[in-house]
Design brief:
alpha/beta, globular, eight-stranded parallel β-sheet, two-stranded antiparallel ribbon, 39% helix, single chain
Length: 283
């Protein structure tokens, strides 16, 4: 199907999931955040992405509450700090995440970004966690092309299940070489901040006259247009954060939006892809 992907053992996973960055930071918003994640599951958005970094574990606690009694419905992803990615420390960090998430396993565990700990040591930790049944798969986040090439040279590095990177209309650098490299190897790319949630670019996209015009012509919102644009790419799954039921339902509806060749060409002229290699953009 056009709007699904084979990912981490899930054969028909929708190419839009749920992000949790900035969740768990304000107690008064917790009930709404839990409700949004549960509504996303109801809409079929089964992938939920979190990290020990988000609210220093607070987001994982929100996810754990949202998944109470529904754990098997989700593909659960969390990420480890690079300084916790050592052979022993990664196991301890994973166990802390599991306690906050109120589960005994993760479907996918990612190295959040590359640090000073050698990749071979992190890979040994990931293998150990798999052997212990605490994670099903592992992957990386914020790895540029050279980082992936080095990873793939390590023993077991070819088992990397995904690379989670920044990707949205105003940040298209991965299209030059990183995305093609992942597509060639059949490694799905998780696009974080697909609506340019972080930084100042969001407003320029949300108020762009061309995007507004196309969205109005299609009777959709600009955020839905931006999501449809991201998931047009083969092997890409977007993980926008939604903090309300209405927002997550709007995100889910973007799965059914098809952009025409003419619309994509107009968008490309206004927001062109890079014509040369661009270093990975990170938020």
């Amino acid at each position: 199907m056009r709007n699904t992907i084979n990912f981490a053992g899930f054969d028909t996973l929708p190419v839009i999931g749920q992000g949790t960055w900035y969740m768990g930071e304000t107690a008064s918003q917790r009930a709404a955040e839990v409700a949004a994640l549960q509504a996303g599951l109801d809409c079929g958005l089964r992938l939920i992405d979190t990290a020990e970094m988000y609210a220093e574990g607070g987001a994982e606690e929100v996810v754990g509450e949202a998944l109470h009694g529904r754990r098997e419905q989700a593909l659960l992803v969390s990420k480890v700090y690079p300084w916790n990615a050592g052979e022993v420390d990664a196991v301890d960090a994973c166990e802390r995440s599991l306690r906050r998430l109120q589960t005994d396993y993760l479907d996918l565990y990612l190295l959040h970004w590359r640090g000073n700990i050698p990749l071979e040591e992190t890979l040994r930790a990931m293998e150990r966690l798999q052997q212990q049944g605490k994670i099903r798969h592992w992957g990386v986040s914020n790895f540029d092309t050279e980082d992936l090439a080095e990873l793939w040279e390590e023993p077991g590095g070819n088992y990397c299940a995904t690379n989670q990177v920044l990707y949205h209309l105003a940040s298209r650098g991965i299209e030059s070489d990183l995305l093609p490299a992942c597509q060639q190897r059949g490694i799905p790319v998780m696009a974080y901040c697909p609506l340019a949630q972080a930084g100042r670019l969001r407003e320029s996209l949300f108020t762009d006259p061309l995007l507004t015009q196309i969205a109005q012509q299609k009777s959709i919102s600009v955020p839905q247009l931006l999501l449809a644009w991201v998931i047009r790419q083969q092997g890409v799954i977007a993980i926008p954060k939604a903090s309300s039921v209405a927002h997550v339902q709007e995100n889910a509806a973007a799965l059914e939006i098809m952009l025409t060749d003419e619309e994509l060409a107009r968008i490309d002229r206004a927001w062109p892809a890079p014509q040369h290699r661009v270093p990975l953009d990170i938020v």
